[in-house]
Design brief:
- The chain has 400 residues and is of the alpha/beta class.
- The chain has 2 domains: 2-150, Nucleotidyltransferase, domain 5 (2-Layer Sandwich); 200-387, Nucleotidyltransferase, domain 5.
- The chain contains 15 helices and 14 strands.
- The strands form 2 sheets. An 8-stranded mixed β-sheet has the order 5-4-3-2-1-6-8-7, sandwiched between helices.
Length: 400
């Protein structure tokens, strides 16, 4: 079975074509800066374990044109991996916000598309382009089933005591203000991979899953189900991120509006695009921040310390939520590659049974690897993220 996975962002389009007979990637890529004259298209072909990468710069006016280019590339006589787009059996779409309407992957029809539109106010930057990707795929691949997989779905198992805010209850009932959580597909994937690595059934493990990239989220997973997560009604909540504040005192909003005379839109830009690591030291790529810190940049060193401190606080909090803990899992760009962050985040947590082996932690691998010390009661693993494969697996459950 061949499954195409599409992730349409506001100005980007990511895609992967899987052969699910062996869960291998046939081809994939990303279109960036859609709508600009200098769009960048990176397309990769996977052939017998080897990769061939094509990079093009060209104008891509909209997502529709972009997806047509992708479809043409997939069946191109020289660089294509299939003979006809009709060989694609199903298409999986990442949709950021499903609200409370969706608790699992679902075959897309008119009602599902309308429900996605209804959730646009909760994810105005993400749901509209996600829906564009769906509608273009329906036009371009007629007759092929389209399935929606929601970032928020994994977190629908949180109890009310975890997802409700201490606001007047009618704000929840009327406006659906609550904690939704994000990166759910990533947390689900690494939870299931972790259970296999621990040699246990997913129903028998308690995990803290830590997704650290430009966006960051942490999840308490009890017996395979989300019990709590750091992101909130929007992806702005939780720990500080590349350009997002993470949790702050809500009174700061009114204070800044009063004293800076910014508009709500301008302040929203500050909170989402100019804060976090970037707000502290002017840089948002952790590799650049480490380099600056090594050269004596105190703000860069402070940014690293703040980031790791906040991760550590969530580990402690979620260990308390779960009661007992089998493993801590790191994933995504920072989580997979930054041994400094992992070490600092787990430092002095032996009272929770968490101890890092420094030599193991310094390893660089593309496959899962353990970094806990021999006498650590709680295992600590690094597991590469693969949200696209998780989406493809969920699509298979719908269409097979």
């Amino acid at each position: 079975m061949k499954i195409l996975v599409i992730n349409a962002g506001s100005s980007s389009l990511k895609y992967r074509l899987f052969d699910m007979d062996d869960a291998s990637v046939m081809t994939g890529g990303v279109l960036e800066r859609i709508g600009e004259a200098s769009a960048v298209w990176t397309h990769t072909i996977f052939i017998q374990g080897n990769k061939k990468k094509l990079v093009r710069k060209q104008e891509i006016k909209n997502h529709k044109i972009g997806l047509y280019l992708v479809a043409g590339q997939i069946v191109d006589p020289e660089t294509g991996v299939i003979d006809d787009i009709a060989q694609i059996d199903a298409i999986g779409h990442r949709v950021v916000q499903g609200g409370e309407a969706f608790g699992s992957a679902i075959l897309i029809d008119h009602a599902v598309k309308q429900a996605i539109r209804d959730n646009n106010p909760l994810a105005p930057l993400h749901n509209p382009p996600n829906l564009i990707g769906i509608e273009v795929a329906e036009e371009l691949f007629p007759g092929i089933p389209n399935i929606a997989i929601f970032d928020t779905e994994f977190h629908q198992t949180m109890p009310p005591k975890a997802f409700l805010y201490a606001l007047p209850h009618e704000y929840y009932t009327q406006f659906k203000i609550r904690r939704y959580g994000f990166h759910g597909t990533s947390h689900k994937y690494i939870s299931r991979q972790a259970a296999k690595l621990l040699g246990k059934n997913i129903d028998d493990v308690n995990l803290i899953t830590i997704h650290l990239g430009n966006g960051c989220s942490i999840c308490a997973v009890e017996k395979g189900k989300c019990k709590d997560t750091s992101m909130g009604m929007t992806p702005l909540a939780g720990i500080m991120m590349g350009t997002r504040t993470g949790d702050i005192d809500p009174a700061i909003i009114g204070y800044l509006l009063k004293h800076t005379h910014m508009s709500i839109k301008e302040l929203d830009t500050v909170l989402n695009k100019k804060s976090g690591l970037k707000g502290i030291c002017g840089l948002n790529d952790m590799r650049d921040i480490h380099e600056a810190a090594e050269k004596g940049n105190r703000k860069a060193a402070l940014a690293v310390d703040m980031f790791c401190y906040q991760v550590k606080k969530y580990i402690g909090a979620y260990a308390a939520v779960l009661g007992n803990l089998d493993a801590v899992i790191f994933t995504a760009g920072i989580g997979e590659n930054d041994d400094i962050v992992r070490a600092k985040a787990c430092e002095n947590l032996s009272f929770l049974g968490i101890k890092i082996d420094p030599e193991k932690n310094r390893l660089k691998q593309s496959r899962p690897f353990a970094i806990h010390a021999r006498d650590s009661r709680v295992q600590v693993w690094v597991i590469p993220a693969n949200e696209e494969l998780q989406i493809a697996k969920e699509v298979m459950q719908i269409v097979r």
